[in-house]
Amino acid sequence: MQVWSFTSYSRMEMISVCVIIGVVLGVSLLVFRRLNELWYSVKLGGRAYKSLPPGDLGWPVIGSSFSSYKTFMVQEDPISFIQSLHSRYGEGGIYKTHLYGKPTVIATDPEICRRIYLDEAKFKQHNPESVKILEGSSGDFSKMDHKIAYKVVATPMNGSEVLSNYVDFIEEVIAKGLEEWSSMLREPIKLLDEIGSLFFKVITKVFLGSRLDAKTMVELHALYKELSFAMVMSTFPYDFPGFTFHQAFKARKKIENIIQGVVEEKRSRRFENDKTSEVQCQVDKMVVAIDENGEKLYNNNLIRDLLLRVLFAGHSTPAIAAFWALLHISQNPHVFQKAKEEQESIIRQRPSNKKGLTLNEIKQMKYLTKVINEVLRRNTITPTNFREAKTDVNINGYFIPKGWTIQIWNIAVHMDPQIYSNPQEFNPSRWENYTPKPGTFIPFGLGSRFCPGSELARLEITILLHHFILNYKMEGVNLESYITQMPSPRPENCLCKIIRLS
């Protein structure tokens, strides 16, 4: 007969208790994790909840925010996040989740994305908290009619007649910049920062004219870089001392003061000269604009708030696209050679008494246009755009409740192998005799929110590539540096040398 000792019995009892505790904790955690699901099931009603897109609302309050943070801040390829959705919930192109305290729908299908972009009756613009850094302190811009604001911003940056006025200036700025970079052979340059500095000169010229001295220009650009850093690092967008967001607001205030000074100076000059001085830039036009009653159309605060955003967007995203363009052509010799042959052919056809690019010559750069299209596809500068449902909406049989956030994943569209074969490959030739279907190429968005600076951005990138391809090459120091995805995919600290060719 076997005799159980007190010690052996106690050990088995303890194991049993641990198992029971483990099971209870596991069930509790499972129930706790499903609280978001239970809450929205009760709030929306069973039938409506079952009609939501497939997906996972995640943990209470935080939802799937950590997964999103990991995707954009830790991993190098956000497409992995989309691939995980496809593998778990099918390739329907629309999914539910819960991000940063809000129920969210993720859209990756081209037709769904296109519908959301274009249907302004049901979807409105919705920016993340970090983007609120760029909202002016007066609040006048947010109250301005979108169509009027878009026209004010887009007018000086679109159309052949308008753009032709900038070609000489842009070419001068870029040629001088490349020459300066090539003279700095002892120390490598931060290429993205240098391109951003050049493009910042262009956008300030367009909107502010030539009123900023070199020192103020450098200070203003540095302040904008602080804002960009805050948009990347503001995991907790709280305006309290010690938070990155708070530092960003301080930088924004300094920017506002600089811009306000320029606007007030221009208005006073117009008044002192009896409004007869020559209109030179967009601010000049805005300070003299009047409505049908003869009243000022734009007050100083509104102009300042508008410029706050325009100067940021007008140099930041084009600079990132230009960086990727230089990197791709430098790493793909066959692309570089084909582009160079086209540029040399254009130069050979130029009259001997003509110096400098013309808009007509730029329009002849068919292959370079394909290169830029491929850059904008392969390295989508705005990976996602945000909307909010203004009312209950049904899309492809799925229910989207009023007030839910919608993330339009432009990058998922551009990296879809069903649309672009071998999407990871940089291949400008894919654009030969190819016209993308509506909604399948959306680097600048769609609809009334289409990027107003798209034509100016393409012009800047084209002129930079023209001069680089003909006269320079890149030697990388750490071109494989860490890539961050927020707010746009770019290297953290890419250093290189620009070498002038003999």
Automatic annotation (TrEMBL):
Q: Which InterPro entries match?
A: Cyt_P450, Cyt_P450_CS, Cyt_P450_E_grp-I, Cyt_P450_sf
Membrane topology type: Single-pass membrane protein
Q: Does the keyword Cytoplasm apply?
A: no
Q: Where in the cell is it found?
A: Membrane
- Residue ranges of the TM segments: 14-32, 306-327
Taking the record's annotation, the residue ranges forming a coiled coil are none
- Give the protein's cofactors: heme
Instruction: Write out the entry's keywords from A to Z.
Output: Heme, Iron, Membrane, Metal-binding, Monooxygenase, Oxidoreductase, Transmembrane, Transmembrane helix
Q: Which domain of life is it from?
A: Eukaryota
Instruction: State whether keyword Nucleus applies.
Output: no
Sorted alphabetically, which Gene3D superfamilies does this protein's record hold?
Answer: Cytochrome P450
Q: Which family does it belong to?
A: Belongs to the cytochrome P450 family.
Q: What is this protein called?
A: Beta-amyrin 11-oxidase-like
The organism of origin for this protein: Cucumis melo (Muskmelon)
* Lineage per the UniProt record: Eukaryota, Viridiplantae, Streptophyta, Embryophyta, Tracheophyta
This protein's encoding gene: LOC103504002
